[in-house]
From TrEMBL:
Keywords: Hydrolase. Residues 364-378 have a biased composition (Acidic residues). Pfam families: DUF6882. Residues 240-405 are annotated as: Disordered. It comes from the Bacteria. This is Hydrolase. InterPro entries: DUF6882. Residues 241-254, 263-280, 290-322 have a biased composition (Basic and acidic residues).
Length: 443
């Protein structure tokens, strides 16, 4: 027989309300602390109040979802997540997707509904929502001897049902009343679907139903004796023990799955580490290749620059050699760094020099010019009337008037040869005083 999530909620709603009242009596307004490694749930005001916590899941407002604690086992002890796995197994048995889907979109009241449904399949009926972070709340089931309820009475059961109905959580009241009576160890007898009588140690109650909803409650005569009530209490205890034993089996399932999940996480971590190492190696190789390429490019660039410099130097040398004339110095070799040496601004490092000037005596200059004019007048007849004057040329006179050797522009003067020629040349005997221009120009 399959069930729905609401069926499980209806089965646990009344007994859950009674256990929550008992938990409130124990804790009051005291602060609490939870330790999943122990595991334990304790009160700060009274450390003797120690209960066993079972983590069902968390609801996150920022994430907008509910996540079951069995989604990734191995992070908590097996006993802590056993109730959540028990809910998952029941959900798989009855086809309830809310209990078998690891993460659900968060809706108003979803966490409480999932918690109530889990109570119906685990037999743990007290819960406590704890703040686990900003916008995150963890839902726990709590169990322990201190939460055990006293024998049922119709007065208490009537108050609990009236309180639970005010929440509007129950839908099928017939199912809710029948489950509550059986789980509490009370006796319930159905006359028709419209009426039922609950018998407890202090009396009986008749409940009236209209279209599946409780429409009235009134006192009634007990329908069974004490022996039957004892059998009902024993049956209720056996139901709780059966669910507790199922939870022990679930813990073994949790341990096995936790080992698988841990191995999967370790494998994934190792794979991620290997991928990171491989990526780092590829990155290092790429960087090394880029470095080698950059160095090779730098070497090639340096070689190209060196070749260009050598070619430029060779071209300049060839140009200089083509323009050089032996015995001369051209301005391009004097002013190698400028294109027009005569149209330049003064150098920044130019140092001031000294220029000296002098003048000739006017009497000396006049005497020189007078002597030159006298010589020209005396020699004029000999040069203008060549055809009537017989000049006897001798070897000596020929040598005396032989034109001086001349040089081609660009040839270096042979000073030693000129000195030897001057020593062996015949000396012209004259006592004429040479003038200024004759001395200056070497005439």
């Amino acid at each position: 027989m399959t069930k729905t999530l609401q069926d499980l909620i209806d089965e646990s709603i009344f007994i859950s309300t009674e256990y929550q009242a008992r938990l409130a009596e124990l804790t009051g307004d005291s602060e609490w602390s939870v330790d999943f490694s122990a595991p334990s749930f304790t009160l700060s005001s009274d450390d003797s109040v120690a209960l066993s916590p079972y983590l069902l899941g968390t609801e996150s407002e920022s994430r907008g979802s509910w996540i079951w604690s069995w989604q990734e086992l191995g992070h908590f002890p097996d006993s802590v997540v056993s109730a959540a796995i028990q809910a998952r197994e029941a959900g798989s048995q009855h086809g309830i997707s809310e209990l078998t889907t690891d993460e659900l979109v968060l809706e108003d009241g979803l966490a409480r509904r999932l918690t109530l449904a889990t109570k119906a399949v685990t037999g743990i009926y007290a819960h406590y929502p704890v703040q686990a972070g900003a916008g995150v709340r963890a839902w726990l089931l709590l169990d322990g001897d201190l939460l055990e309820l006293e024998a049922p009475t119709v007065n208490r059961m009537g108050r609990v049902m009236a309180q639970a109905l005010q929440t509007g959580t129950a839908v099928n009241h017939l199912k809710a009343v029948d489950s509550y009576a059986r789980l509490r160890g009370a006796h319930i007898e159905w006359d028709t679907e419209a009426t039922a009588v609950i018998t407890a140690t202090d009396g009986a109650l008749r409940l009236w139903f209209d279209e599946g909803k409780i429409s009235g409650i009134e006192p009634a005569e007990p329908t069974v004796d004490a022996d039957e009530l004892n059998r009902c209490a024993a049956h209720a205890a056996s139901l709780r023990e059966q669910m507790r034993s199922e939870r022990s089996e679930v813990e073994r399932i949790a341990a096995s799955e936790a080992a698988q999940h841990s191995a999967a996480r370790e494998e994934a971590a190792a794979r991620e580490a290997a991928e990171r190492e491989e990526a780092a190696a590829r990155q290092a190789e790429a960087e090394a290749a880029a470095q080698r390429e950059a160095e090779q490019e730098a070497r090639e660039e340096a070689a190209r620059a060196e070749r260009k410099a050598a070619e430029r130097e060779a071209a300049e040398r060839e140009a200089r050699e083509a323009e050089e004339v032996e015995g001369t110095t051209t301005t391009d070799r004097v002013y190698t760094d400028v294109s027009d040496p005569y149209d330049q601004d003064p150098r920044d490092d130019a140092q001031p020099g000294r220029v000296t000037t002098g003048s000739f005596d006017d009497a000396v200059v006049a005497d020189e010019f007078e002597q030159i004019e006298t010589e020209e007048v005396q020699e004029a007849p000999a040069t203008t009337e060549r055809e009537t004057v017989e000049v006897e040329e001798t070897e000596e006179s020929h040598e005396a008037y032989k034109p001086a050797a001349f040089r081609v522009a660009g040839e270096a003067p042979d000073l030693e040869a000129e000195r030897e020629e001057a020593e062996h040349a015949p000396k012209k005997e004259t006592k004429e005083k040479k003038g200024f221009f004759s001395r200056f120009f070497g005439l």
